[in-house]
Amino acid sequence: MGFAQAVGGTRYLFPDLRTLLARATPLRSGDVLAGMAAETAQERVAAQRALADLPLRHFLNEAVIPYEADEVTRLILDRHDAGAFAPVAHLTVGGFRDWLLAAGPEALARLRRGLTPEMAASVSKIMRLQDLVAVAARCHVTSRFRNTLGLPGRLSLRLQPNDPVDDPRGVAAAILDGLLLGSGDAVIGVNPATDNLETTLRLLELLDAVRDRYGIPTQSCVLAHVTTSLLAMERGAPVDLVFQSIGGTEGVNRSFGVSLALLEEAHQAALALGRGTVGTDCMYFETGQGSALSAEAHHGCDQQTVEARAYAVAREFSPLLVNSVVGFIGPEYLFDGKQITRAGLEDHFCGKLLGLPMGVDVCYTNHAEADQDDMDALLTLLGVAGVTYVMGVPGADDVMLAYQSTSFHDGLYLRAALGRRPAPEFEAWMERMGIEAASGAGQLPLAPALIGLG
Fold it and tell me: Is 361 assigned to a binding site?
């Protein structure tokens, strides 16, 4: 089925849903690289108008990637909840945008399982930044393991103590730095420089020893491949969260070395450990626009639609944490600060709308046309939008992954500017240790011993 729309005396034709979604997407370099972007702004407006008139039901009848060719498509359609969809089933995409802008938190929560990722992606393409912020701010998603994340009025931080050679001393120093600055309630999560079992075991033991010694109500994670985490669990390692990068097609997940069946195996193994104290959400997923194109596994879909499909994969496993690493893949996919900002807000909106505890790594690579001012703007917009968590990296400069993210101080800024607080269990721990009082007075301790961490 084709679609047509006239703008300025020119009639534009879009042969299928996949093409319509791609042409309607706000400009980004990855879609231009793939030859899927609208050739002119006028064509983009025509596609957005045609998309606005499209009934939401159409997404249940035309898959952007065939059902028989892709296990992610099968997951999306097989899990669709017709009852949850009923309140908006009569709407067009444009009408759905209006409905979202008027809906309250309870109505948005009831809708989650009735939406497909393509529905979420489609409506985001015709929304302004303020629309994306306003709706996401009313999508309240909580998750639990050793603390409670995503409550209204809260902002959590992932403490990211990466070291270029996995030196335990460097990792431990960064952990201490982050804890003193109120970071770590989302997770203390290390990206290993070398993804092998022995390194993973050593880092897991270090993280668990720090958490246990100081009685920190948080979770730890070594962001190794899921198969490495499975081997670590077989060896009796203290695995809290199982991490994996995922994408929105079977092919991109295959390029990551995973499948839905493998993720389910890891999920069940982590559940069996029973390490959570206030909940059982034990999976951690990262995503990012452009991963499918870089793996040549996008099936002709635009990168934002494929990104939204990754959230269906995440949703299947009730994760504690999901975040888009929005600017990490590089300017080939998101060229500059404007494109990174738009993508970060789209990803957060779509993830929250679909029911995920969504965070964003507010980041860029050094060869992108972006700087820290761009990141400050995106960070602030995400804070207003109710982002579940952001990253805390020493100095905002990840010396192992070689990219620019957000610092511990950026997290403190956002909490102070918006009146946000850490996860309640972590906040209580900070108060017991004296950290909250010291940071609230603007006077951080000079030595760990002064607050009992020596």
Answer: yes
Identify whether the C-beta of residue 172 lies closer than 8 Å to the C-beta of residue 214: no
Q: Are residues 82 and 149 in the same domain?
A: no
404 is in an annotated binding site: no
Domain co-membership, 234 together with 277? yes
Residue 5 is labelled as binding a ligand: no
Binding site annotation covers 400? yes
Q: Are residues 68 and 128 in the same domain?
A: yes
Write phi, then psi, for 6 (nearest 5 degrees). -105, 135
Alpha carbons 309 and 80: distance in angstroms, whole number:
13
Would you say residue 426 lies in a domain?
A: yes
Q: Give the whole-angstrom CA distance, residue 291 versus residue 30.
A: 10
Average the pLDDT over 332-349 and give the result. Answer: 97
Q: Model confidence at 91, in pLDDT bands (50, 70, 90)?
A: very high
In this structure, are 171 and 199 located in the same domain?
Answer: yes
Which DSSP category does 29 fall into? H
**445 assigned binding-site residue:** no
CA distances from 138 to 133, 147, 268, 290, 345 (A): 9, 22, 32, 28, 14
Q: What is the CATH number of the domain that holds 50?
A: 1.10.220.70
Asked whether residue 126 falls in the same domain as residue 147, the answer is no
pLDDT tens, position by position, 219-276: 999 999 999 999 999 999 999 999 999 999 999 999 999 999 999 999 999 999 999 9
Question: Domain boundary residue among 136, 171, 202?
Answer: 136
Q: Is 294 annotated as a binding residue?
A: yes
Classified as helix, coil or strand, 400 is coil
* Domain final position from 136, 160, 183: 136
The response to whether 259 counts as a known ligand-binding position is no
Task: Answer yes or no: are the C-beta atoms of 241 and 145 closer than 8 Å.
Answer: yes
Annotated binding-site residue? 379:
no
Number of domains in the chain: 2
| Domain encompassing residue 428 | 143-449
What is the Cα–Cα distance from 38 to 23, expressed in whole angstroms?
5
pLDDT at 417 over 50: yes
Kind plus residue range of the DSSP H or E element containing 339: helix 337-353
